[in-house]
Sequence to fold (682 residues):
Amino acid sequence: MSKSINTKYIKKSKPSFSVDETVEKLLEGNIDALSRTITLVESTKQEDQDFSNEVVTKCLPNTGNSIRIGITGVPGVGKSTFIESFGNYLITIGKKVAVLAIDPSSQKTGGSILGDKTRMETLVQNPNVYVRPSPSRGSLGGVAKATRESILLCEAAGFDVILVETVGVGQSEISVRGMVDFFLLLMLSGAGDELQGIKRGIMEMADAVVITKADGDNLKLAKNAMLEYKNALHLFPASESEWIPQVAHCSAYENLNIDKVWEIIQSYENKTKLNGFLEKNRISQAQFWLNERINELLIAKFYQDKEAQNDKLQLEEKVKKGIISPFNAAEQLVNKYLKNE
Amino acid sequence: MSKSINTKYIKKSKPSFSVDETVEKLLEGNIDALSRTITLVESTKQEDQDFSNEVVTKCLPNTGNSIRIGITGVPGVGKSTFIESFGNYLITIGKKVAVLAIDPSSQKTGGSILGDKTRMETLVQNPNVYVRPSPSRGSLGGVAKATRESILLCEAAGFDVILVETVGVGQSEISVRGMVDFFLLLMLSGAGDELQGIKRGIMEMADAVVITKADGDNLKLAKNAMLEYKNALHLFPASESEWIPQVAHCSAYENLNIDKVWEIIQSYENKTKLNGFLEKNRISQAQFWLNERINELLIAKFYQDKEAQNDKLQLEEKVKKGIISPFNAAEQLVNKYLKNE
Fold:
């Protein structure tokens, strides 16, 4: 980080741009520049990381001006359909909407944005919308970094509502919760929580539970489910945000109550801006990621060190043969590694 | 580790012993030497760690000759009472029994061995029994290290059945599962799993479920519960050990079926010694702890480094002010730290 890399250019894409040119284009809302930079953020190459780090840093003064919304729910709940309706609504009231997906196991799942592009057709074509699929590889930590920095870049590019979609697999929700201001849980009516695979922990993270597909015969079921969730949410301890989680139902199909969801998010934003929680929460999120990333890098760099890995292989054999205790071996390895660095 | 510390002596306790003297006494089954060494294993002082590391290493050839049994269950299930009955039974058949407790949050809980010493009176007084309360402080990783090395030291001292008691709090069970050959879950009849706070994950780790307090009016309930648990356990995927988890009931009060529990453990031991799983499992446990401890030490040493902490404080301020991204800051900090080491 110490030496300037302003003179380096993005090689992959033609034409190439310097860091300053990229930042300038980004701040103008240029989608190509945004896409290219996110690609570099997602890259594991050191030069790409260095370049994008500089861009992100230079963009920082122009970030923070959006509401960051995490959206989760099990496959089948209608996430893509909801996001499409919700996104279209936001555009009609003059918003610029970015949709990012986080899915650390995206090789396996079929429900992520990647496969749903066709279902979001109306959104993708709109110039006020930017849809970015999940990075297709990387550790949870790497995906978290890429997503969080993508949020910042989208903000710098002028997007004022950021939707972060997550697949319902537990760890990624917790990760997304640590990046967004507002966490929206989509649920189906008529299926028990168990059936929907939603853990109590996920419910507790939600700022709002929205029951989808509440149309036709489903509407009555949805209203009953609303009451149940309201009761369940009341049992949770009050949050530091002083916000009481809301429950609503909507139908993307009938375009019903989509505005209601935005209303809830707006009142959350107003309340937490007034009581200072929004800002405070963002600061503690940044501290959280600082600590997480330090831990992750300390471990990753040890495993990237060839000599340390050779030493480890040798001592591991001794551990397996019972010649040295694993704890003693670990201490020897780490001490030697840190002395060599 | 590189320089010999054979010349160093245990200072805290009088009289002092060298590493070799300590090992010699330990191998003779001297309880004072065992207790003193476990105290050093639990100590956070570097010299104590160095000393006990040497003792453990020298004891290693004499370890592994016990059956290591993890015992868990929610408070109120009668863990201490069961352990007392079970321990007394084992003594009558000529075993030497060590009882260790693991409880990373022992400040808070009232159900650990520490508070139950009186209830284990008959055990504590027996020369063929060694009861060691949980270390009162330390991280989960630190407690895991202390417990695992205590197991080895007890084996070196001639104990052939090691009981590791854990309080029912999730994380510590997983930790104990990674140290023992056999995992025993104690349950009450008449209370649903939910009520007993036992998560499905804990059930899945069990090699046997034993329903306690199966006497008087409770006996019928216990027999019904047995059937239920048998059915539940059959739903779990087969384990690599080829062992089918067993269900039994017992009464410590009436001294009923305590021998049956030992019979189950014996047949597990026979089966897994024959098919090689016992040894294979111990080797992969050792590898697991090697990796866990490496990760833990890498992080701990960074946080012990004063310069790194100063740098971190400064960059953390910049992160909080939004001048630098937390990911960028983490990379700068870790790179500088590793170069300085």
Observations:
- Chain B has 13 helices and seven strands.
